[in-house]
Design goal:
By secondary structure, the chain is α+β, with helices and mostly antiparallel strands. It has 12 helices and 6 strands. 30% of the residues are buried.
């Protein structure tokens, strides 16, 4: 077993300083941390510092997130552990005066080892490309088992079909039941659920990973790495569109629990169009990824036949 790469020398000095602050903050906030691993674009060195474009009259911008995996020896109280880690992002931004978003995933040593031994795509990629920012040295992550491409393809298809179907059902409920009945608050909730399901379909198809998020803004930030087209689905360049976007975000909680929360017929009509476009985009980009998996399976089979003969 080889130890992971621990060098961040390829990153600009500011990013290196940011990562030191992130590590120190995590260690201050939670106990039993064995490893802190940087993964994603900053680990690979292909991060985007900032990119702004005007497309179809819409201003879009993109900046890579810091993706961090925290591995703990044990987690006594998971809700408290998760809450403290969720607060690390705000503390980091204040300390570092940075507007780079922080995405933290956490697991126990036992879970990560199990994932690697099963050849899990997401954790195998972290093991191969990740950078150990902190390591107690108490254990070494095993080399990931090479997964069979046919298994990856099967998982991706199952995830896509499951969450895309859920998204379509939520959309249908809003369009065919809530909206005609004048239940606009419930329509906004079901549209949020449809939107969330389509985001999960994308992240699970591409990376076999489901973010623990309900916030639409955060789900956009996480999934736009798979297609910048996602940003265009939710235009925010006018006050009206910004209001509709915030209404969609708020509807997850407000539409169910706040009697004062107001959603108008016209709001639902626009949001339905947004989510219908997002459904179509989700189908297109996931289909392309599934076709890519199919080609990889065919290549693996061909390689196997050639080796056998």
């Amino acid at each position: 077993m080889n130890k992971m790469n621990a060098s961040i020398a390829h990153l600009p000095e500011k990013n290196q300083e940011d990562l030191k602050i992130i590590v120190a903050t995590i260690l201050e906030e939670v106990l039993n941390v064995e490893m802190i691993i940087l993964f994603g674009s900053y680990a690979r060195g292909n991060q985007v510092a900032f990119d702004r474009q005007m497309e179809y009259g819409i201003s879009t911008s993109y900046r890579s997130d810091y993706d961090i995996l925290v591995i703990a020896s044990r987690i006594k109280n998971e809700p408290v552990f998760a809450k403290k880690l969720n607060g690390v992002g705000a503390i980091f931004k204040e300390k570092a005066k940075s507007d780079i978003r922080l995405e933290i995933v956490y697991k126990t040593v036992e879970k990560v080892v199990d994932f690697l031994e099963k050849g899990d795509f997401f954790y195998s990629e972290i093991r191969r490309e990740g950078i150990a920012l902190y390591d107690t040295g108490s254990f070494i992550l095993p080399e990931p088992r090479d997964p069979e491409m046919i298994e990856l393809e099967r998982q991706a298809k199952d995830f896509f079909q499951d969450f895309f179907h859920k998204g379509e059902r939520f959309l249908k409920t809003a369009r065919e039941f809530d909206y005609p009945d004048g239940e606009y608050k419930m329509a906004s909730f079901h549209l949020h659920q449809a939107c969330e399901s389509f985001f999960y379909a994308i992240s699970l198809t591409f990376n076999q990973y489901k973010p623990k998020e309900h916030d639409i803004r955060m789900l956009i930030d996480f999934n736009k790495r798979y297609s910048q087209e996602i940003v265009k689905i939710f235009p925010r360049e006018t006050a009206k569109n910004e209001h509709l976007f915030e209404l969609l975000r708020a509807s997850y909680v407000q539409s169910r629990y706040n009697k004062e929360f107001v959603v108008h017929k016209e709001d639902v009509e626009v949001l339905m169009k947004w989510i219908e476009r997002f459904r179509d985009l989700t189908f297109d980009i996931c289909e392309r990824k599934l076709h890519e998996f199919e080609r990889m399976v065919a290549d693996q089979r061909e390689e196997y036949v050639l080796k056998k003969h």
